[in-house]
Amino acid sequence: MEAILKDPSGAVIGLDFDGTLSPIVPDPASAKIHPAAPDVLAELGAHVGAVVIVTGRPVATALELGPGLTGVPGLVVLGHYGFERWEDGRVSAPPPPPGVPRAAAELPLLLDSLGLHDVSIEDKGRAVAVHTRRAPDPEGAFAALREPLAALAAKHGLVIEPGRMVLELRPPGMDKGHALGLFLAERDARSVMFVGDDLGDLAAFDAVRASGLPGVTVCSGSAEVTALAERADIVVDGPDGVVALLRELTTAFSRS
Ligand SMILES: O=P(O)(O)OC[C@H]1O[C@H](O[C@H]2O[C@H](CO)[C@@H](O)[C@H](O)[C@H]2O)[C@H](O)[C@@H](O)[C@@H]1O
């Protein structure tokens, strides 16, 4: 933290979206960014080298659920774990992988055969996710799905990404750690902070360490995921705590 405070223009601040900037809600389509987050990110962006959101959501969805984000100067959003990039109002991405629609087409029959009728499918185009949060037994449904979904993913050249009551089938070759590492190099970062809440953010924590830069890892804490808190330098209380921490940072920058 000291390096970030001493030399803010060399700092990259990376943040996850769901569970970090946006509180967890039962229906993924009803998620909304914390109301104070866009303003805090804009203030932060005025001091640091770069603010980047690294999310499993498609870029378009993150911007739809966080409409104020489009007004944050200099913000970069890396969607689909880094496959998509939004910057200056433009999105760049490789062509979508053919395995995703094939796996998505087989999902309803698979869920039916497992007797799982209360799980929901989120088709994200470049990935497809199965959510168990609204099932009568979310943990039981998650456990029952793990192996069959891993097999379906493998059949179509995809990998499985476990998250908070969600199992996602997505293409291999990119994760939040790789995405963050590339971004740090591109920006010649001199320090880094990454804030996340879920298992997919562990790769970004690893990238902070692997960068060799002075770095801080922050967990947006929850009772649901403990693995991240164990590996974080700082644990705050969910998105409210994240916003409060970022506010403290901007206040400290304004004082110096
Ligand atoms: O990388 P992230 O920005 O953290 O995205 C990870 C997944 O987040 C979303 O699901 C999670 O949030 C939902 C809304 O609060 C919640 O209902 C669900 O239980 C959580 O797992 C999103 O729907 C997924 O596509 C993302 O991969």
Overview of the molecule:
The structure is a single chain. The protein is α/β, with parallel strands linked by helices and 256 residues long. The protein has 2 domains: 2-94 and 173-255, Rossmann fold (3-Layer(aba) Sandwich), CATH 3.40.50.1000; 99-170, Alpha-Beta Plaits, CATH 3.30.70. 38% of the residues lie in helices and 21% in strands. It has an 8-stranded mixed beta sheet, with helices on both faces. A 4-stranded antiparallel beta sheet has the order 6-7-9-8, with helices on one face. Helix 2 (37-45) links the parallel strand 1 (11-15) and strand 2 (50-54). Helix 2 runs parallel beside helix 9 (238-255) and helix 4 (99-113) packs across helix 5 (138-155). The longest helix has 18 residues, at 138-155. The protein binds ligand L263DTV3. The ligand O=P(O)(O)OC[C@H]1O[C@H](O[C@H]2O[C@H](CO)[C@@H](O)[C@H](O)[C@H]2O)[C@H](O)[C@@H](O)[C@@H]1O binds next to strand 7 and strand 9. InterPro entries: HAD-like_sf, HAD-SF_hydro_IIB, HAD_sf, OTSB-like, Trehalose_PPase. It catalyses: alpha,alpha-trehalose 6-phosphate + H2O = alpha,alpha-trehalose + phosphate. This is Trehalose 6-phosphate phosphatase. It holds the Pfam family Trehalose_PPase.
